[in-house]
Amino acid sequence: MVEDYELMDSGDGRKYERFGNVSLVRPCSQALWRPENPETWSRATATFDREDGNRWHNRGALPKEWTIETAGIRFRLSGTDFGHLGIFPEQRAQWNWIREVVKRRSGGAKLPTVLNLFAYSGGSTIAAAQGGAEVCHLDASKGMVQWARANAALNGLKEHPIRWITDDAHKFMEREIRRGRRYDAIIFDPPTFGRGANGEMYKIERDLKKTLSLVKALLSEAPLFVLFSSHTPGLSCTVAANILGQAFPEAQIETGEMLLEGRSLPCPSGIYCRAVFRTNA
């Protein structure tokens, strides 16, 4: 399997990563240790910092767009004004897991159905589709939905049954409940703070309970899993396990840190929590 992502080094509040032929230094608040190979950082294609607002250095050396492959998925990348690229590589382990779990259900006459909320550039959507699922991809940003569609096409999934939705997550889920539509698996990575398609405000500490109640109402009678991930500071694995454990007492709860990994010390970058319905997985 091609692997174009690598954490080259980290420390002093930054991370040095390779995305194919492009290497970047960007902020990383969790990297409180010393870099292991600081002498190599000057080789980076470009750097990004927030010391005086959001600012790239040597941005002209970055390609306007480039393509990489990681965890069996091809992504189109591009440097944004906020330092993002269109990928969160700490989700690689989850993409592999989603693909394999969905694949176990895909041999029947009816495709398993997966709802991916706050879906960004579509890594989880593509992984589920590769496993054989019918997928609904939702994000509040029209631009990100278009980016995810382009990624799906890169992976040969242009004709795969994927619904592409630009909407506020709660409003969409409430409509799906009224329609009687249900999903075998639901994935959600809500923002700490964000805005919906029509300016609706989302705050995780206020709205997570409602999100979870809607997720629960949308699950099919024979669910596979619910996968929650978060980059919110202070939201620990224990908090996530408590929340999902109360919502789904019949499921097995699996939780851990999402990690950036490569040739350096692993770098934590958020948490995941999975409610796995073992009798149906």
Number of helical elements: 6
List the helices and strands in order: EEEEEEEHEHEHEHEEEHEHEE
CATH fold name of the largest domain: Rossmann fold
Apparent shape: globular
What structural class should be given to the helix and strand makeup? alpha/beta
Q: In percent, how much strand structure appears in the residues? A: 25-35%
Largest sheet: 7 strands, mixed
Broad CATH class of the largest domain:
Alpha Beta
Q: What gyration radius follows from the Cα positions, in whole Å?
A: 19 Å
Shape-level CATH architecture of the largest domain = 3-Layer(aba) Sandwich
CATH superfamily of the largest domain: Vaccinia Virus protein VP39
Q: How many extended strands?
A: 16
Helix content: 25-40%
Average residue-wise pLDDT: 94
Low-confidence spans: none
- Give the strand order, joined by hyphens, for the main sheet: 10-9-8-11-14-16-15
Q: Tell me the span between the first and last alpha carbons.
A: 25 Å
Please give a quick description of this structure:
With 281 residues, the chain is α/β, with parallel strands linked by helices. 26% of the residues lie in helices and 31% in strands.
Descriptive overview:
There is one protein chain. With 281 residues, this protein is an alpha/beta fold. It folds into two domains: 73 residues, Immunoglobulin-like; 188 residues, Rossmann fold. 26% of the residues lie in helices and 31% in strands. It has six helices and 16 strands. A seven-stranded mixed β-sheet has the order 10-9-8-11-14-16-15, sandwiched between helices. It has a five-stranded mixed β-sheet with strand order 1-2-3-4-5, with no helix packed on it. β4 and β5 form a beta hairpin. The longest helix has 15 residues. It is globular. The chain starts with a strand and ends in a 5-residue tail after the last strand. The model has no long low-confidence stretch (mean pLDDT 94).
